[in-house]
Amino acid sequence: MKPIWGWIIGGAVVIGAIVLLAHDQAGKHRQIDLCLRATRQSAVDACTKAIASGGADGLWRAYVTRANAYVSLHQYAKALSDFDTVIRQNPGSAAEYVWVAYIDRGQTYWALHQYGKALNDFDTVIRRNRTGQTALVVAAYMDGANVYMAQHQYEKAVAYLDTAVRLNAPGSAGFTQTRGILLNNRCWARAIWGQQLNVALADCNEAVSLHPNRATFLGSRALVQFRQGNYAAAIADGDEAIALAKRKGADVFYIRGLAKLKIGDRHDGQADIDAAEKINPAIAGTYAAWGVPPANK
Length: 297
What we know:
Layout: H1 18-37, H2 40-53, H3 59-72, H4 76-88, H5 96-111, H6 115-128, H7 134-150, H8 154-167, H9 175-193, H10 197-210, H11 215-227, H12 231-244, H13 250-262, H14 266-279, H15 283-289
Helix pairs in contact: 1-2, 2-3, 3-4, 3-5, 4-5, 5-6, 5-7, 6-7, 7-8, 8-9, 9-10, 9-11, 10-11, 11-12, 11-13, 12-13, 13-14
């Protein structure tokens, strides 16, 4: 998550220094503005200058932005150092950027497969956030579910997503988009788990109705349909997902291929399997671990 921040420049109160202070603060403001607008290495460079300028409002946001830029460059140790700085130097703070630092640090730990540390950061936001920033708590539950998914603890993942769905109240900012993502994630969790598939299908159906052009949502539903034995429906969802996707993923080709093989379409089914394995050579093993055997079994 890369938030868009706003801030207010504090005014000088010493009349004799007001012009100089205003000029100095304006310069710092420009440095931080450049930092928050940049990406990747440009963000690292701009944010480093903003941090070196010191003292302006938005300094901690510059640390968070630089940390996320380091993540995008796969420089995880530097990213963690910046997140640590924000959290360590703002103990007990309820400021939004501190909670974002916890969430983004947790996501970095998750990417590094350090699941215990990731879950601790997400749960810290859940336990300690009492400022009404519900969107951040929803994000923490969503990311916590991803940690449990990575550890094959699907029932716990579903429980976290249940809470996130409940907290994402109608009328809140971004409600429809967030609800679609949460329902899709919960559908996918149950599909991987192979349990409560009718409930999973209901979630996917609503997610697709909210966002009919999201290829990933159709791909999730294709897996549910496949696991329920609805092979024609799985193929139809796969067809639509592949047509919509700007970047073709291995999963939907693999599921569509398996579904085609189930109905006896050996040629096209194997072509889809081959396409999936070209994108992700390990995909058959991944699905086998989820209880979906490879085509030759």
